[in-house]
């Protein structure tokens, strides 16, 4: 059986087919020259028409990811500015709501633009309050942390785009093991803080020289996570993933960058002796 696209076409179809003969005869009343002219115009339009892009076919593009990520960051920055200025005490609420929404969005099969946007707002509330706390203790610290976050982001993107760091199965396994180890380490530190063991504002395992070492490791893990995020987005675009997954990609980038900013904020505070 021939391709139905061609077999059903009055231009490419088999002239011996009854349906095609009927179509051709329907236009015969206007004369043979008119029929040839119509066919020629149709063919010209077909050849001159631009090729369908990924956006036309509903597939994921880098522009989609960039636009969604920029939108989420705009929500985050605005909510952070409002919290910083008016209600810094709401940072605890933002932290709890952001944690819950982060888990919900991470395990949802289909991305929810509303829930992801609410997550960005909640994280903005959290970051606005906590950033003001650090800024009041050490003026200029927040600006340094923001600049350092962008610097690490740019360096990670450069290393990925240049091919100097490749996301291989071995690299991914190493990162997963390291992240699990860091999570366990952080939980132990939190437990020690709750029971007031060892002292230290950030916990006994996140203060002093040890805190600096752990902070540097955490920043390295966050940078490696960004590289994995870039690779995932690249594979999604190349595989023609649905455009709606741009929300998932943007959500993942925001999660990693928020974590990176917090680690840099804490690390800089320790380095300043605050």
UniProtKB/TrEMBL annotation:
Transmembrane helix listed as a keyword: yes
Listed Polar residues bias regions: 1-10
Pfam (any one): BaxI_1
Spans traversing the lipid bilayer: 65-84, 90-107, 114-134, 140-160, 172-198, 210-233, 245-262
Highest taxon in the source lineage: Bacteria
Keyword set, alphabetical order: Membrane, Transmembrane, Transmembrane helix
Record has Transmembrane helix as a keyword: yes
Chain segments carrying region Disordered: 1-31
InterPro entries: BaxI_1-like
The protein, known as: Bax inhibitor-1/YccA family protein
Originating species: Cellulomonas algicola
């Amino acid at each position: 059986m021939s391709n139905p696209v061609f077999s059903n076409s009055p231009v490419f179809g088999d002239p011996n087919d009854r349906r095609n003969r009927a179509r051709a005869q329907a236009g015969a009343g206007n004369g043979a020259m008119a029929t040839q002219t119509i066919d020629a115009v149709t063919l010209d339009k077909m050849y001159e028409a631009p090729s369908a892009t990924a956006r036309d076919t509903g597939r994921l593009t880098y522009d989609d990811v960039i636009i969604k990520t920029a939108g989420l960051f705009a929500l985050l920055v605005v909510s952070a500015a409002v919290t910083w200025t008016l209600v810094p005490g709401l940072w605890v609420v933002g932290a709890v709501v952001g944690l819950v929404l982060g888990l919900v969005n991470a395990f949802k099969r289909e991305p929810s633009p509303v829930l992801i946007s609410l997550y960005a707002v909640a994280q903005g509330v959290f970051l606005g309050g906590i950033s003001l706390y650090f800024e009041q203790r050490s003026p200029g610290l927040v600006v340094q942390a923001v600049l350092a976050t962008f610097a690490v982001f740019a360096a990670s993107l450069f290393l990925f785009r240049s091919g100097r760091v490749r996301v291989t199965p071995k690299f991914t396994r190493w990162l997963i093991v390291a992240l699990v180890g860091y999570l366990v380490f952080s939980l132990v530190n939190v437990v020690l803080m709750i029971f007031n063991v060892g002292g230290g504002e950030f916990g006994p395992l996140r203060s002093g020289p040890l805190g600096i070492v752990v902070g540097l490791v955490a920043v390295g893990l966050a940078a490696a996570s960004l590289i994995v995020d870039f690779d995932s987005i690249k594979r999604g675009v190349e595989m023609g993933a649905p455009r709606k997954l741009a929300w998932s990609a943007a959500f993942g980038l925001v999660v990693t960058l928020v974590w990176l900013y917090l680690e840099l904020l804490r690390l800089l505070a320790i380095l300043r002796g605050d």
